[in-house]
């Protein structure tokens, strides 16, 4: 399965601390759910155990929104949650 990244998604990944590997893993191995505008959402938790913006967190959740284009997924945006 091929995962491609829209420029908007790359920008949000950089702002929110998600890596390409984490986003790809959320699409390939995460929980899938329906999203608005005919998109699909994917969610996966990752061990983190470090600091993000001055606070220590044990886990990071990567939530990815993508559209199917043939055999590929085009990632539109990414949201991260730290806990």
Task: Write up what this structure looks like.
The protein has helices at residues 7-16, 20-29; strands at 2-5, 31-34, 40-52, 55-69, 72-82. It is elongated, with a radius of gyration of 13 Å. 24% of the residues lie in helices and 57% in strands. The chain has 2 helices and 5 strands; from the N terminus they run E-H-H-E-E-E-E. A 5-stranded mixed beta sheet has the order 1-5-4-3-2. It is of the alpha+beta class and 83 residues long. It has one domain. It starts with a strand and ends with a strand.
Descriptors:
alpha+beta; about 80 residues; 2 helices; five-stranded mixed beta sheet
Can you describe this structure in just a few lines?
This protein has helices at residues 7-16, 20-29; strands at 2-5, 31-34, 40-52, 55-69, 72-82.
Largest sheet: 5 strands, mixed
Q: Helicity level, as a percent range?
A: 10-25%
Beta-strand percentage range: over 45%
Low-confidence stretches: none
What are the secondary-structure elements, in order, as H or E?
A: EHHEEEE
Round the mean pLDDT to the nearest integer and report it: 97
- Structural class per helix/strand content? alpha+beta
Terminal-residue CA separation: 29 Å
The overall number of domains is 1
Radius of gyration, in Å, reads 13 Å
Q: Can you list the strand order of the major beta sheet?
A: 1-5-4-3-2
Please, how many helices? 2
Shape: elongated
Per DSSP E runs of 2 or more residues, the count of β-strands stands at 5
